[in-house]
Design brief:
binds 3-phosphoglyceric acid
Length: 220
């Protein structure tokens, strides 16, 4: 993690990406687990946390982490509408991640003061996000949409864009993604295996976070 980063202030999308090599993609349905999980990840050196809006409890989990784990920076993932952006900002999310991009989501995040990492999988989507001033983007779903080869190809026409590949990224391929000059960090769910979360194995999650936080990267 970037020890010089003041995590209580307003962040840019680039700061969110630069803080650690991996942004964990988290699915939570229990507020108590949320706080313990966040503490376990922070103990392993990972504090930018993407809590996906995929469960009815997701907003309450974001709220609990924001309140009880001030050393973490909670973001919301799976932000698909302006209403999602407003709701997660109200809950205390400090950044937003979306699986795709629309101007409405971009505008809502700007209005709410949330840095946004929007998902893109095509050149046209990159151009649409760039039209709205966004140059830090999530490549989603990274493996399914072309993997490292796609990012290499985009490095030519979109040399000014920095990516966070997410979707199908794992310990087996994270290093390859992170060796690319246009990849600042990767996203993935492997830091928070659902069985470890269910049995409260926070030591395992801290160990996974430690390994992830030590991955080398070329950019950032
Ligand atoms: C997601 O949105 O679920 C993320 O892309 C995580 O994908 P993964 O489970 O393949 O890491």
């Amino acid at each position: 993690m970037d020890v010089n980063l003041n995590v209580s202030g307003k962040l840019t999308a680039l700061q969110v990406m630069q803080d650690a090599p991996v942004i964990p993609v988290i699915v939570l349905s229990d507020v108590k687990q949320a706080v313990q999980l966040a503490r376990a990840l922070v103990a392993g050196g990972i504090r930018m946390l993407e809590v996906t809006l995929r469960t009815p409890q997701a907003l309450a989990c974001i709220e609990a982490i924001a309140r009880d784990v001030p050393e973490a920076v909670t973001g919301a993932g799976t932000v698909r509408s302006a209403a999602d952006a407003q709701a997660c900002a109200m809950a205390g999310a400090r950044f937003a991640v979306s699986p795709g991009y629309t101007h409405a989501v971009g505008q809502a995040c700007r209005d709410a003061g949330l840095p946004l990492l929007p998902g893109v999988a095509t050149g046209s989507e990159i151009m649409m996000a760039q039209e709205d001033g966004l140059t830090e983007l999530k490549f989603f779903p990274a493996m399914q949409a072309g993997g490292p080869a796609m990012l290499k190809a985009w490095g030519g026409p979109f040399g000014d864009v920095r990516f966070c590949p997410t979707g199908g990224v794992s310990t087996a391929n994270a290093a390859e993604f992170l060796s690319l000059p246009n990849v600042v960090c990767v996203g993935g769910s492997w830091l928070t295996p659902s069985d470890a979360v269910a049995r409260g194995d926070w030591a395992q999650i801290t160990a996974l976070a430690q390994q992830a936080s030590q991955l080398a990267r070329k950019a950032a």
